[in-house]
Amino acid sequence: MKKKLFSKNLLSKSMNKYRSARKIGLTPGSLVYTGEKKIATTTIIVTDFNAEKVDRREIAVFTELPEQRESKRWLHIQGLHDTELLQMVGDAFSIHSLVLEDVVNLHQSPKIEEFEDYLFIITKMLTYDEENGELKSEHISFILLDNLIISFQETDAAYFDPIMRRLENPKGRMRKYSADYFLYTLLDLVVDHYFIVIDALADQFERLERNVISNPTRYHVEEIHHLKRQVITFRKLVRPLRDVTNILLSGDVNLISDDTNVFLRDLYDHTIQVIDSLETQRELVSGLLDTYLSQVSHRMNEVMKVLTIMSTIFIPLGFLAGLYGMNFVYMPELNYKYGYFSLLGVMLLIVIGMILFFRHKKWL
């Protein structure tokens, strides 16, 4: 099972390297999707909302995109493999080709870029597959324009369904606030998923810690190193988000209002909590390897202790058995009627005496 999983991961990495290699030599801004095709067709979901109503629809082709009237709009695109569609979106909203290139480049780390008319943010949506013990990452990008938010997602996973439910609440502030607040809610949901992954990793750590303490085996070393890699990967993908939120809070971003800054400070605090939790988990996992080595050493010491005690008990018994096993003619005890039983009694007394001595010294 582990060999199959290793082969699958190796094949996936090889394919990703192949896709990345296709970009070599191309003009900057060329759209080359560097990931796997995870859904059959790209989905375009358009949601227009204001204080009075919410209108959500799914369109088959981008040319059917209705005109935006006096309302805020969320354009959500699921599936990044259709580069022609992404190019049409870029042309329709005057998005720079380098931005679109980052949208389809799954190896791009989280970042933020401000342009004259829009704001571009890359994040990573993280989930944890507890069955296979794998950390899964999904490339998600956001573009904020005036009263318009465009989001790009690899798959059709329903990550943002809670946002839609909040939009349907007529008393919620999401309808009343500007588009930058809606961007905050999307980023906040991404960070909330990080806490779920942290809890899942913590459960894996506690399970592994119990197994290591109770019955350490060589397979636990592989699990410890695997968990450590998961935490390091998690930390690598989350750390840049701190800089993203810090820039949003700087006050120099034109599309971010002062009203939204209050909520962005809370988002920044949550990001710092995630990073601090990952630092703690990384130290705990590193310490778990020391715990494993300590437990293995302790078990070895216990085994050696038992063997040493047994050897110590049998040393005098072996001496007596060897002494009276010599074939000398003149050995007075050999002719003694009760010599055999006396020797057994002496051996028994030696064994009992040594056991009592070991117990007194608390070696047993």
- Major sheet attributes: 7 strands, mixed
Q: What is the general shape?
A: rod-shaped
Number of domains as seen in the coordinates: 2
Number of strands: 7
Low-confidence stretches: 1-8, 10-15
Tell me the helix content: 55-70%
Beta content: 5-15%
The value of Rg in angstroms is 34 Å
Q: What structural class do the secondary elements suggest? A: alpha+beta
Q: How many DSSP helices?
A: 8
* CATH fold assignment of the largest domain: Beta Polymerase, domain 2
Give the overall pLDDT as a whole number.
84
Corresponding CATH superfamily of the largest domain: CorA soluble domain-like
- Secondary-structure element order, as H and E? HEEEHHEEEEHHHHH
CATH architecture of the largest domain: 2-Layer Sandwich
Question: Largest beta sheet: what is the strand line-up?
Answer: 2-1-3-7-6-5-4
What CATH first level of the largest domain would be assigned? Answer: Alpha Beta
Taking the alpha carbons of the first and last residues, their distance comes to 43 Å
Task: Give an overview of the whole structure.
It is a single chain. The protein has 364 residues and is of the alpha+beta class. The protein folds into 2 domains: 268 residues, Beta Polymerase, domain 2 (2-Layer Sandwich); 57 residues, Magnesium transport protein CorA, transmembrane region (Methane Monooxygenase Hydroxylase, Chain G, domain 1, Up-down Bundle), CATH 1.20.58. It contains 8 helices and 7 strands. Helix 5 runs antiparallel to helix 6, helix 5 packs parallel to helix 7 and helix 6 packs antiparallel against helix 7. The longest helix is centred in the last third of the chain and has 66 residues. It is rod-shaped. The N terminus is likely disordered.
